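the two lines:
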Amino acid sequence: MSESKFVYVTFIRATPEKIWEALTTPEIQRKFWFGGYQQSEWKAGASWTLHMPEIGIADTGEVLESERPKRIVLKWRNEFRPELKAAGFTRCTYEIEAQGEVTKLTVIHEAPEPSPMIDAVSKGWPMVLSSLKSLLETGNPLPRTEQAKK
Amino acid sequence: MDRVFKALADKSRRRLLDRLRAENGQSLGELCEGLAMSRQAVTKHLRILESANLVATRKEGRMKLHFINPVPINDISERWIGKFEHARLGALADLKRNLEGTKK
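prediction for all of em together
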């Protein structure tokens, strides 16, 4: 198989709207995204940037699709590691689907060919999703994903 | 969480996860190749892994592809390991500061 793709799924006891809000609100993102936050209007065609502590603008891209509160598709490229930036754009899809008491959140991160960027993000996503689940269900994110450095 | 431990408590299912870790996004047919298990047995194991959320599936064209999903294992790791690792990293940082002679 030539493409590079990961699929992550988590079930969260929260409404799709709450999950959408957490994924798109900088003040909430900071708690579960290792202190980082994202800037975007979250509408198709809008620019998207990921800011990380100590790094500044880490990743950039564009919102390709946006359907509140069900689906977001992002074009996503790393900016601060030359070897990852050279790998070009990846595509990240959020699917948010109510299933009774819980909501299924699926994150698909993919590139058309083998990508060091997909390998790199594959280390962070499980932690970010575990922390988001913890934050929305208990009010507390995982300690390690809060601001990593003072 | 019971489902995750039950799903992992089987050699064949761990083997299927190993195969997905080596190559993610495989069809049932690809996963069956080279295994001494019937297609029905593999299907049954995959269903158990999927109900434990250790495997996620996507339809691509007419194919159903299987992906390893590490999130539930990360949830477990954070519950029992993350906290201790956090403390250990803190201790290592203190040791480094002491050895390098930087006062706190």
